[in-house]
Structures are given as C-alpha cells and as structure tokens.
Amino acid sequence: MTPQLKRVATLFLTLALVTSVFAGAFAGSAAAITAPTVTATDDGTGATTDHTISTDYDNTDSPSLKEITLNYQAGNLSGLTASDATVSVAGTSQTVSAVSVSGETTVTVTLDSTVTLSDTETIEVTLSGVENPHNAGSYDVGVDLIDGTGTSFDSAPGTDALTIVVGDTPSVTATSDLSEGTNVTGYNGSADMAETIEVEAYTDNLEADIMTADGSRTLTTVNDVTAVSAADSGTSTPGTYQLEVNHSELRTLEMGVNEMTDLQVAVENLDAGAPANDFNATLENTDEVSQLHIAADDTRAEIEDNSISVFNRTLWDRTDAEIDDTRDVTGNTSTIYVSAENETFSDEVDAAIPDSAEAGDRLGLMMSSSVDEGLVYVFYDEPGDDVTGSEVDPVDDTYIVLNDNEPHMINLADGTTQDGGTLDVSLVANDAPSPGDLRDDLDYGWVDSFAVFQYSIPFVGAGLILIGSRRRLGGA
C-alpha cells in the first residue's frame, strides 16, 4: 500500500470511530419513557376533576425514581397537596410524601422512598382537584423523572397529551377579537368602534366583565349576546355566541396617547357554577384621545374645605375640588376623557351642577376649569351656546362637557395641540372664576361675569338664591 493510500485508510478509520462515538452518545441520550397520556375524568372546559398521567419506562438502566414533575401547558394545579396525588409503578402503589406546585401549572410529586425502575414498567400518577383549561383544544403535559440526588434522568414533552372539549366554562374561539394575548390596535374611544368576544358554550346566558389589568375595577359588563349558531343539547353540540365591547365603554381606563394598556376579561356562563374564562388582552391607543382616571387616593385630585362656621354652626357649606394634570398630546389629539373613583371629587362636581340643569347649560361653578392655562366653557350633558348665544363648534372651540355618568369630556379645538407637546388641564368644582378672566378668555360682559362671580361669595351668593334660579346664576 502506498503512503497516500495509508493516509486515506487512516482517515476513514478515524471518521468511523468518531461516528461510532457520537452515535453511542446520541443513543444513550434518547428518551427512555414513552409519550405520556393524560385522561381527565371530566374533560370539559373549566371542570375541576381528576387527571391520570401515564407513561412507560423503556430502558434497562435501572435508575432510582424519587420525584415526578408534571408541566402543564394550561390549567390550574394550585392547592394540590400530598393527599391529592397517588403514584403507582408497575402496578404497585407508592407512598407520596409531598406535593409542591409552582406557578399553577407545574407540580412535583415526591415519593416517600426511591423506586428502582425496570424495563417496560408503567408509571402512573393521578391528581385530584385539577382545574381544566378554559378553552377547548389539545394541551402539552410534560413529564420529568428525577432521582434521589435531584437530578433529572429522563423526560418527555407530552405534546397534545391532554384533550379538552367545551364544558360549562365558555371557550373563546380562534376568531374572537379579544382572547388571551391579543393586541387591539386603533383604539380611540369611539362609540362607532367595538371588539367582539366570540365563545362556544351550551347556553346564551353569558356575561363578560371587562376590567383593569389587575382586576380591581370593572370598566363595563356586557350581557347582550348574539347567537351565531345555537347550542344543540340533543347532539351535545355547543353553540357559538358573540358579545360586543364598544370602545366608548372603555373611556374610564387611564391611558395616554399612543400608549398600550392591558385589560382583564372574564366571560361567565350564568347557568353554571363553573369558573369564568378569564384572560388578558392589550389595547393600543391612537394619538386621537387621552384618558385620565383619578383613583380614590390619586394625588392629582385636590379637595379643600372652604366652609364658614360660627359656634359649630355651618353658615356657608362649600368644598372646592380640583383635578390638575399634564397630558402628552400630538397634533391629532382631539379629546381628553376624565373620570374619577375619588368620591369626594365626584360629589363636588355633582354639587356644582344645579338640580334644574338642562342639557347644554353652561355651568358657572365649574368654569374655573382650564385648558392650556385658559378658561373654557363647561356644559352639562352636551355642548351648548357660548355667552353670545352662538353654538360652540368642536373643530374651532375648546370646551368641557360634564356627564352624570362619567367620563367627562374635554374637546380640543384644532390647533390646540402639537406633536411632541404637553397640555395642562384642570377640572375645578365650586370655585367660580374671576370676572376679569371670564371677560378676557370667554368674552363675557361685565354684568354676566359678575353674576357668576357673586354666586361664589358667602352670604351674597346665598341671598341670590332667593331672587334667581341656580341654573341661571350657577349656570352662568
């Protein structure tokens, strides 16, 4: 053999040895357990039931089994204890000493003593009190086998091991506008826009709560249901139903221009005691609207008691309330919605609205309110006329509309804002503006401006109640 042929032969021998080593390594790392199966006693959505997870050990390594970890793709395992788990190996029951749950979907079952596994033995775990996923479909349930040293010696992903069908909990469809993790673009608070929640259920007696991300406050509850197809109990076929969430019902959500804000949604079957189908979605705001919400303890709300008392007797009962904030805006921003959980502020706003107020009335005791440091007209329920008798224009005029049912609306005239800018806004209740500011900012005359101002003066204002209606004086 020539030296060149020897080198070639040596190279092939080396490659063969390397291939053999790698093949042996990969062969040794192959999973020794079969794909796990999961059987649910009740396979309906949201049901709390028993799950039996089964897999076969198929190797001659004879490892010692101490712990079994099960990783669910969805569902709820929280609250499980050692008394909720049973384990058998090759048909022999094993004593469970502990069960620990992590993040609601991962459970580790610890045996009282290690068990030596033999080839083809079946490992079976039964868990009692598992809450099924809330949506119909197939779910992964991974299995991880751990020895007495805490080292994993085998695992299997359990792809599509658990199958769930529609049960008492409504199942959100794949075509629903709102579902887990969806991002709703183009939000602008408009009553002309809506998102649809589509579910499969065995009843049309459904209700959806739309809440803040932490679930602490309900923005709106939707119970107007449209049937796409009705359920058929005779064939156990669920129906498809839709609930519409109008954008205008979400105006009390704190959100700046171009911001993304999370929502929590819970869809409930009112005919059953099953869990609601709850999930999180995201709203992506445009630059057309900004939404200001004052929480109960929000420092942006200022309350000041300006009452006058003599010998513990209140002669003049007055509390001033103010919301003051700076909002990011763009040249497209046309509306700011304002709502409040602060009951004191809301009560004082109500007090500033005369009982006899009619839609479109000007509210003099709210007209210290300002936008961009200038006084603006404040109307009740809908835009009305300025002091000259001309109807305000949403394109040309900046004004505020107070509503009995929040949110209140600040309309911004075109040109009020610009890209990359900020805007100072304030809502002030029970503190009448100065006559000079009314004349300078809103074209009030001398008589009209002092009529509004005098109503806020102790004793003088009280006396005016006797000679004129509160709507005319308080309403400017």
Approximately what portion of the residues adopt beta-strand conformation? 35-45%
Taken together, the total number of domains comes to 3
Kindly report how far apart the N and C termini lie.
115 Å
Major sheet: arrangement of strands: 1-2-8-4-5
Tally of helical runs? 6
Average per-residue pLDDT, rounded, comes to 85
Helix content: 10-25%
Query: What spatial form do the alpha-carbon principal axes imply?
Result: elongated
Secondary-structure content class: mainly beta
Main sheet properties: 5 strands, antiparallel
Poorly predicted regions: 1-29, 457-476
* Rg: 34 Å
**Strand segment tally:** 33
Protein name: DUF2808 domain-containing protein
Region (Disordered): 39-60
Biased composition (Low complexity): 39-52
Organism: Natrinema ejinorense
Brief description of this entry?
The chain is mainly beta. The chain has six helices and 33 strands.
Describe the structure in your own words:
This is DUF2808 domain-containing protein. It comes from Natrinema ejinorense. Residues 39-60 are annotated as: Disordered. Residues 39-52 have a biased composition (Low complexity). There is one protein chain. With 476 residues, the protein is mostly beta strands. The protein folds into three domains: 37-164, Immunoglobulin-like, CATH 2.60.40; 171-286, Sandwich (Immunoglobulin-like); 291-473, no CATH class. The protein is 13% helix and 41% strand. The strands form eight sheets. Strands 1-2-8-4-5 form a five-stranded antiparallel beta sheet, with no helix packed on it. The protein has a five-stranded antiparallel beta sheet with strand order 6-7-3-10-11, with no helix packed on it. A hairpin with a 7-residue loop joins strand 20 (260-269) and strand 21 (277-285). It is elongated and about 100 Å long. The protein starts with a helix and ends with a helix.
